[in-house]
Every structure is written in C-alpha cells, then in structure tokens.
Amino acid sequence: MNFNVRIAPVLFGDAGIYTCSLESNTFLTIKLITVKVTAEPPDTVTEGDTVTLSCSVSDVTAPTRLVWINGDGETVGDKTLTGEEKSLSLILHKAERSREKWTCGVFDQDRLRIVAPYYQERSDLHDKVYTVYRSDIDHSELKLICEASAELSKTKWTWKPHFQNQVMEIATTDKSQPIIISGRSYFENRLRTTQEILNVSNFNLRIVPVQFEDAGDYTCSLGSHQYVTIELITVRVTAEPPDAVTEGDNVTLTCSVSEVSESMRLVWINSDGETVDEKIFMEWKNEGDSLQLIIPTDDKIRRKWTCVLFHQSRPKIFIPYYLQVKNDFTSERIILVITRSLVLLIFMILTVVFCRRMYEISALVWIAQLSEMNKQLQLAANNYCQAIQNSKSMKEGL
C-alpha cells in the first residue's frame, strides 16, 4: 500500500522535516531545504538600471556554497555559508541583454544540489526578436513584455506554436479598452494580464506555469507593425516508469527540447557533477529532439540527475530529476521491524519454556518431598503398631 503525499508548487516556507510513521515505528524522514531568488526592484527594469539579486537557503546544517552564474556560464559570485548566513546577494549594475538569465547554484560538499534560475525581464524590446528558455517544472513563468501604445489602433498578442502550423490570437486591446484574453481555450487560467486596462504603453501578459507545449513564437503587434517577437523554447524531463521504482530496476530518463537550432547541446550530469551523456545538434530543424539516459536504481548515491541545455557553449537551462526508489527505505524498515518482532517472540518463548521448566522441577521436588513424608509416616505407623503388638505380648506373658 502506498501512502504518498505531493506538494506542488513547493514554497520557500514549506522547508522542514517530514516524517512518515506507522504507530511507533518511523519509516521515513525527509528534510526539505528550500531555495529562493528575489530581486530588488522586483519588476521589469530598463537597460542601465541597477538590480540586486538575493539567493537564500532555508537551512544551513553542513558546509554549503551558494554560487551565482551569469548567462554566459561564468561564476560571478561565490560564498560558503555558515549557520547564521543563509543568503548571497549579487548587484547587477547593468541589465545586459546577453546576460538576461542568472542562476543560483547550491552546492553541498562540492556537489550541485539545486539550481534556481532568475530571468531578468527587460523593457527595451522595441522592434526586436529574442529567444527565451523555460522548463515545465517548478512553476516556471513566462512574461510577455510589450510597450506598444494602443491609443490609436488595435494591439494584439499572437502565438505560433512550434507543434502547429497556425497563428493564434491570444489577447487584444483597442484604443485603451479592457484587454480581452482570447487564448483561454488552450491556456485556460494560465494566461493572465498584469492589468485589466492598458496603461499608456503597457500591454504585458504572463503565462504561469509554463508547459512544454507552450513553445513557439509570441508576437506583439500594433496594427500591422510587429512590435516585438519572443521565441519560447521549452525543455522537459520525463521518466519511464514515471512513478517510484523498486530498487534494482532500470529507469529511462528522457530530456526533450521543443525546437533544435545549430550549436545546441543536451547534456546529462550526475550528482557528482560528471557528464555521463550528451548530444550535439549541428543544424536547425523546426521540430524537437531528445536525449535518453538509462540509469540503474541500485546506485544509492547517485539519485539526482540533471539535464542541461547549452546553446553556443552557454548553459541556458538546468532541469533536475530526483529518482524515487521504493525500497530505499521501506524494505529496510520492514526488515528491521520484523527482526525486532522475531527477537521479542523468541525471548517470550524462551521465558515461557523456562518458567514451565522451573514449574516442572518444582512439582517434581514437591512430589519427592511428599513421597518421603509418606514413607516417614508409614514407618512411624509401623513402629507404632509394632510397639502396641509388643505391649500385648508382654501382658499375655505375665
């Protein structure tokens, strides 16, 4: 019987110790350490503005390192934390376009445990086309920023999916009228606006959480003029079988990318930070691709695997996968409980046998004592009878 609980999405305040118990026996204890990245100011910034990023960890009980990595894959901040220090700040003096993504990495004993990306949304996107990367885990978000003014003409957001050859209108506004979301047939409640009525030159949308199938080209148009185009490339990791497996079984992990361009690379990294497999794409193609990795579950150390997407030698996105093994804790606990029960049962049996043996010995001693007393009584009775007989004989002789 499975007694599984799922928390989604995980919040920073969910950190703590989770215990699964059966009566007085503890089967599993999980210590959850959470990481978050915050920005000040928290909203979209203009080129040249200063932004302070803070990476915080909920608990520090062992030597822990926080590392900031920019969009070029370069380490720009590194700090070993103590019990009192639990965060690392990074000041960005200029929100450069080439470094719009920043990643905080948490290392424990030189092993990368988790990565927390931060995407610096910029507002200087007039007449530009750029690419962003998102995964479909950890409640990821896509912000669609458009500064087009709809005071004189119709403004709209359209979406051309990578998996379909059509253009869909997902949001419109006309002459500062309320924004109409027309893409809910697909996105449902995941597509939202930052405000109901257009604010001068602010026609911004957000998709949260991002799904793998959301990949495609998002275009903001003012009349017939295309104001900005954002290409979304999505990456995801799947497992077969998808649920927790029994120790000894193999698991096939698949890292998929929605669209492939030249100089793109998928890499699998184990918990030691070692590259175990990679696939290099040499040409562009308007379709996705993937990289599979078969891993054994009898390796109790390497239970975390990370897929990394590189573009022109720059890491664009990290997707961790945590392998769940059923017998990792339950079998050992069950064996321990059974062993303890058997020991207790054997002790009780030996106690009963000992007590019964002692009872039998005591009964035999008691019977022997009664037999001896009976012999003594019979001897006394015989002596008494003999004395009486002797007394009668003496009287008859006289």
Structure described in brief:
The protein is an alpha+beta fold.
Give an overview of the whole structure:
The chain has 398 residues and is an alpha+beta fold. It has three domains: 1-116, Immunoglobulins (Immunoglobulin-like), CATH 2.60.40; 125-233, Immunoglobulin-like (Sandwich), CATH 2.60.40.10; 241-345, Immunoglobulins (Immunoglobulin-like), CATH 2.60.40.10. It has two helices and 24 strands. The protein has helices at residues 184-187, 330-397; strands spanning 16-22, 25-32, 35-40, 51-57, 64-69, 75-81, 87-92, 101-108, 111-119, 128-135, 142-144, 154-161, 168-174, 180-181, 191-193, 205-207, 216-222, 225-240, 250-257, 264-269, 275-281, 289-296, 304-311, 314-322. The strands form six sheets. Strands 10, 12, 13, 14, 17, 18, 19 and 22 form an eight-stranded mixed β-sheet that branches. A four-stranded antiparallel β-sheet has the order 6-5-8-9, with no helix packed on it. It has a four-stranded antiparallel β-sheet with strand order 21-20-23-24, with no helix packed on it.
